[in-house]
Design brief:
By secondary structure, this protein is mainly beta. It has 3 helices and 13 strands, in the order ββββαβββββββββαα. The protein has a single domain, classed as Jelly Rolls (Sandwich). The protein is about 10% helix and about 40% strand. The chain is globular.
Length: about 190
């Protein structure tokens, strides 16, 4: 596995080694031993998968607060998407900074998103499947979201999203979350 740094500390791209022959291909998507050798120490407890039928679907920017915050390793198993991580740790020098990585079924890249980051993605094709491992269980009472078009974050997308859930359409900005003391948590 190849671990590639992004512009945000601790958010990394994981490129698995793919072994192919006339039958097809094989890859190891997760190896605790190999990733610990690269400084990634996570114990996963839940796998999730979602499907988006149409290009232009945006899901996010989602997060969970402590003590139920989640680190994730995300991969695309069908289609193409732009995967996004935003640092929402108020004590971080990277606060409100973001990174985006194109994940496709073909490039087989994965994105590691640590605790303390909001996550979202924009589908770049129809028929997109995304799968991810989480190191903590989903907990609705600790769940939150931030507007995808928050000017403080300033996401640069290849095109404006066309399909969003009502929850994501009506999400507050980062400043509104802070003003309401809804991001009052500290991460190591």
């Amino acid at each position: 596995m190849n671990v590639i740094e992004t512009n945000l500390k601790d958010v990394v791209i994981i490129e698995p080694k793919v072994f192919g022959d006339n039958r097809g291909w094989f890859m190891e998507t997760w190896s605790r031993q190999k990733l610990e050798g690269a400084g990634v120490h996570l114990d996963f407890v839940q796998d999730n998968q979602s499907y988006s039928a149409h290009k232009g679907t945006f899901r996010g920017l989602h997060y969970q607060l402590n003590p139920m915050a989640q680190a994730k390793i995300v991969r695309c198993t069908r289609g193409k998407l732009l995967d996004i991580a935003v640092d929402i740790r108020q004590n971080s020098p990277q606060f409100a900074k973001w990174t985006a990585v194109e994940l496709t079924a073909e490039n087989k890249r994965q994105l590691l998103i640590p605790r303390g980051f909001a996550h979202g993605f924009l589908t770049l094709t129809d028929d997109v499947e995304i799968q991810y491992k989480a190191d903590n269980y989903y907990a609705p009472h600790f769940d939150g979201n931030i507007r995808w078009d928050d000017p403080e974050i300033g996401l640069e997308l290849p095109f404006a999203p066309e399909i969003l859930s009502d929850k994501d359409k009506n999400a507050p900005t980062l400043a509104e979350r802070i003003q309401r003391n809804e991001l009052n948590f500290i991460f190591d």
